[in-house]
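In the design runs reported in the main text, the only information available to the sequence generator was the tokenized backbone. The following block is the verbatim input for one such run; it is reproduced so that readers can re-run the procedure and compare outputs position by position.
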């Protein structure tokens, strides 16, 4: 293959892989360098940690949105740090940052559009009681849906579901998260389109030469034992990471520009002016009123409430987030040159992510947790895959959450800058979702039809449901079933994902045409450059090996049963506990894994 060199020995391959990273997963950089790299990871979480609380504050009918934003940002930082620590210590044990999930926003919007939760027409009637009641509804349904995720991870049932989920099911689900939130971008950006456009254009203008050079270098540095599919995935992750860093730079430049225009009174200090919310001094009272020391605690806003409509909407969002995270786990292993995560590690990661989302609901963050792709992609730039760096980043996020001043400072970001950042991030989410479709053969009329119909219905059906509910609002008050239909059918990613999954499994097509071959190839290419012991839980794995029943638990490191998240069958283990090439099903050897050009076939 062009750009690749033949491996003559396993030792040569291992050396080439190891030299690509400065610090592997099980290595620790010097303390000062470790701190700097951890700070870099923390900074890269800011766009997501800033955007989601600001979106939620607009939906909650808060009386003082600025103070609520600052408080929610603090809780989000705390949950990002806590989820990262739990995942890197007990979960997948790969260098991954956990943060707020955008998948939760569409069902929250659909839930808050019910007559029961609509904001009063007069903003003067907004109060703490109103927004806390709405937050409790989000908390309860989020916790309940996350418990289902914990169950799927602990039982290994997610592997069964994934047999029916391919690229054409995932692509419209992820893409519609970004495409369905365009009205939110308009809400923030319409204050001053010039500043919002600057936030969007700046990273584009600066980044294009960088991305072109990186793509060229990536092709030249292709690692021999990776397939073209895996190389493309790794390259995309690295480019996403570089892009997010440029977005941060753009946010700072736009914020500074708004400050200059505020000081020079180009943006008048007049509440009635359309440019007033573009000023940088509108929310200075939050910086003065926010306490220096604070600490999130469970059920701060009261006991959560639940509803059937809210639960089903959150459940669809949770399952979408799980599928996205599974892809991130495999990609993280690729970038870090780690072995393929075993079924036990994948099951454990799904369960731990669910546990973190339950905690997120308890704390009142208002969102689930998921892995951040751009933080994982940063490994391709820094060449540092040290697990300690990401664990330290989790600690720093928790420390930042203990002072409301941090959230208050981020609350000062003007609305048009937020609109620009949201436009870039949601556009990136949509494009990443659509790029997943290219695992399939997009020259096939079958696949183009499946993707097009899924996207079309994902955008139009929720719009029709919204218009119908406005015309006949009395019908949506009468029964829980009406509210369930409104929330489920009013969530674009749910409609698009279900439509894509049904069409992809019903319409005949070969595995190659549907993209399942490339999809599995990304998850199953072998990599033996470091020990699979990185997936063992520290201190307790040796103890678990002494307890025979643990080998039947899908989340145990000693698990030897079914429940793999990518194959309907599993690799067997030899008497020493190492993976062998034999594939077993129902306890019998059914085939041997063969390789051609170092690829599993």
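Verbatim output:
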């Amino acid at each position: 293959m062009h750009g690749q060199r033949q491996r003559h020995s396993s030792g040569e391959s291992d050396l080439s892989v190891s030299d690509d990273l400065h610090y592997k997963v099980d290595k620790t950089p010097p303390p000062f360098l470790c701190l700097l790299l951890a700070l870099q990871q923390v900074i890269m979480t800011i766009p997501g940690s800033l955007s989601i609380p600001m979106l939620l504050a607009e939906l909650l009918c808060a009386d003082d949105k600025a103070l609520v934003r600052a408080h929610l940002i603090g809780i989000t930082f705390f949950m990002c740090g806590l989820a990262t620590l739990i995942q890197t210590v007990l979960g997948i044990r790969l260098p991954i940052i956990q943060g707020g999930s955008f998948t939760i926003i569409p069902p929250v919007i659909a839930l808050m559009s019910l007559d029961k939760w609509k904001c009063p027409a007069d903003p003067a009637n907004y109060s703490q009681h109103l927004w806390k009641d709405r937050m409790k509804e989000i908390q309860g349904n989020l916790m309940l849906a996350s418990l289902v995720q914990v169950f799927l991870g602990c039982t290994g049932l997610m592997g069964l579901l994934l047999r029916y989920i391919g690229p054409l099911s995932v692509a419209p689900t992820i893409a519609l998260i970004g495409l369905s939130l365009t009205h939110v971008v308009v809400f923030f950006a319409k204050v001053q389109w010039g500043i919002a456009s600057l936030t969007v254009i700046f990273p584009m203008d600066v980044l294009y030469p960088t991305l072109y050079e990186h793509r060229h270098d990536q092709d030249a540095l292709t690692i021999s034992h990776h397939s073209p599919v895996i190389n493309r995935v790794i390259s995309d992750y690295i480019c996403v990471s570089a892009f997010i860093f440029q977005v941060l730079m753009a946010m700072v430049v736009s914020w500074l520009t708004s400050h200059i225009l505020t000081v020079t009174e180009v943006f008048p200090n007049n509440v009635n002016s359309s440019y007033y919310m573009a000023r940088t001094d509108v929310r200075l009272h939050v910086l003065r009123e926010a306490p220096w020391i604070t600490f999130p605690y469970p059920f701060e806003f009261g006991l959560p409430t639940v509803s059937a409509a809210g639960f089903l909407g959150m459940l669809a969002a949770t399952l979408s987030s799980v599928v996205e995270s599974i892809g991130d786990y495999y990609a993280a292993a690729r970038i870090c040159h780690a072995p393929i995560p075993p079924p036990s590690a994948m099951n454990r990661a799904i369960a731990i992510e669910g546990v973190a989302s339950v905690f997120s609901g308890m704390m009142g963050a208002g969102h689930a947790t998921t892995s951040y792709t751009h933080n994982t992609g940063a490994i391709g730039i820094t060449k540092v895959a040290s697990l300690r760096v990401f664990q330290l980043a989790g600690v720093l996020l928790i420390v930042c959450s203990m002072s409301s001043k941090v959230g208050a400072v981020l609350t000062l970001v003007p609305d048009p800058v937020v609109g620009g950042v949201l436009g870039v991030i949601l556009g990136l989410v949509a494009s990443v979702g659509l790029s997943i479709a290219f695992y399939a053969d997009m020259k096939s009329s079958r696949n183009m039809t499946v993707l097009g119909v899924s996207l079309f219905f994902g955008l139009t059906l929720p719009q029709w449901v919204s218009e119908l509910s406005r015309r006949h609002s009395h019908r949506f008050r009468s029964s829980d079933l009406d509210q369930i239909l409104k929330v489920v059918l009013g969530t674009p990613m749910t409609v698009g994902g279900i439509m894509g999954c049904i069409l992809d499994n019903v319409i005949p097509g070969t595995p190659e045409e549907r993209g399942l071959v490339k999809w599995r190839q990304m998850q199953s290419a072998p990599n033996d450059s470091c020990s699979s012991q990185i997936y063992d839980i520290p201190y307790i794995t040796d103890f678990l090996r002494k307890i025979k029943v643990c080998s039947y638990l899908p989340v145990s490191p000693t698990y030897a049963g079914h429940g793999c998240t990518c194959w309907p069958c599993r690799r067997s283990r030899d008497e020493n506990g190492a993976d062998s090439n034999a594939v077993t099903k129902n306890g019998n050897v059914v085939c041997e894994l063969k390789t051609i050009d170092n690829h599993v076939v």
